[in-house]
Structures are given as C-alpha cells and as structure tokens.
Fold this protein.
Amino acid sequence: MNLTDKVVIITGASSGIGEATAQKLAKAGAKVVLMARREDKLKALKDTIENDGGTALVVSGDVIKKDDFDRVVEETVKTYGKIDGLINNAGLMPLSFVEKLKTDEWEQMVDVNIKGVLNGVAAVLPKMKTNNGGHIINISSMAAHRYFPGGAVYCATKSAVKMFSEGLRQELAPKYGINVTSIEPGAVATELTDTITDEDIKEHMQDMQNMTTLEAEDIANAIHYALLQPNRVNINDIYLVPSEQK
C-alpha cells in the first residue's frame, strides 16, 4: 500500500502534529490540503512541501465554523476531484482547575476539540460515501484514558473524541468501507500548552520539562502507519506515550 495521489485534509496544519503530518504524507505521495486559521503559516508550509517535490493546497478556515469546513471540502473536490482522508487534528488544551471557573476556556475546548471534529466528519462524509471508502483519523489523547491535574474538561473532550471515533467505525466501516482511527498520544512537544492561563497549572507543568516528550514527527509516523493499511484492516486506536511518562 502507498499514499500516491491520495487526497488528505489536515486540520490544525499550521504547526505541531498537523504540520509534521502534512510533510510526512506529502513525502509519501499524498496530496495534502492544509486547513488552519493562520494562513501565513499554511502558505509557508505549502512552499516547504512543494520545494520537497510534494503537492499541497491551502484553504484557511476555522474548524468550529461549519461553513469554513464546507468550503474546504468544496475547494478540495474542485482541485483534486475527491477526498480520501481527513485528519481531525485541531485542538486546544487550556488546562485549569475546575474551581477557577474558566468557563470561556471550557467552551473553547468543547467547540474546537469536539464540535470541530463533528464538523469535519459532517463535511467529508457525503463525499466518502460516494467514493465507497476513505479514512477518518481523529486526534484524541492519553487524556481519554486517565485524568491529570487541571484536565477535567480537556480529558472529557478527548474521551468524547475517542468514543465518537469508535461509534463512527462501527457505523461506517462495515457499510461504506470508511475506516476510522483514534490517535491517543501522551505528552508531545508542541504549542498545545501555550494556551494555559492557570498559574497553578503552569507551575505543575514545569515537572514535564525534565521528561523527554514525544515529537510531532512521532505522531505523524503513527498516522502514516494507520493510513498505509489495506482496506480490510482498521486500526482502531494507537495509544503512544513517552517512554519516561508514568
């Protein structure tokens, strides 16, 4: 199996896991569609991919806006004629203790981490059903398996993504040949922690600096592995953590 000429939409492609995944899949021959809000970073990534001989399309948008996602799908089909894969990668992690009542941050996490995934699936599913196949990969987290300090809402959103992925798999794979995978990483060196505003959590996060975390490329490799499987094989979950993480 290979990814030559496969068309894959990647959300949150402007940095971190999304950026690394776009580069990995493009090198493997996929035509990657880059979606995020920071269009300047997407254009820089597109240049990097094309300089390496790959193919990329930039369609900026916000995953919480259904119209934005519909536009991404429309531009993808207009340019490449099909959609083979969706990587629902966009996410936020403004950790805080519940008693701080940072309700605006709670709502942001629900909007991006859950509704963003739902919007993506709703936008691509009609095309994948028409194609009688495809692969949806949702980025969940180790947080779907266990709580950690300040993660009550974040863990809840990632648990939702994990369970939604399993529901999708059972509904779509047998009937339409659309495979679904939940990727569940532990600590990764990305911008994800930059959104934390709770000072108590920031102090706690200092402990993580002494640990060798996963790199974004590690997650990209896991995604690549899942996509490379023959249609008869569905990789339900990939749960990967740093060797040093307890």
Q: What stands out?
A: The radius of gyration is 17 Å. The chain has one domain: 7-240. Helices lie at 16-27, 39-51, 66-80, 103-131, 152-176, 199-205, 216-228.
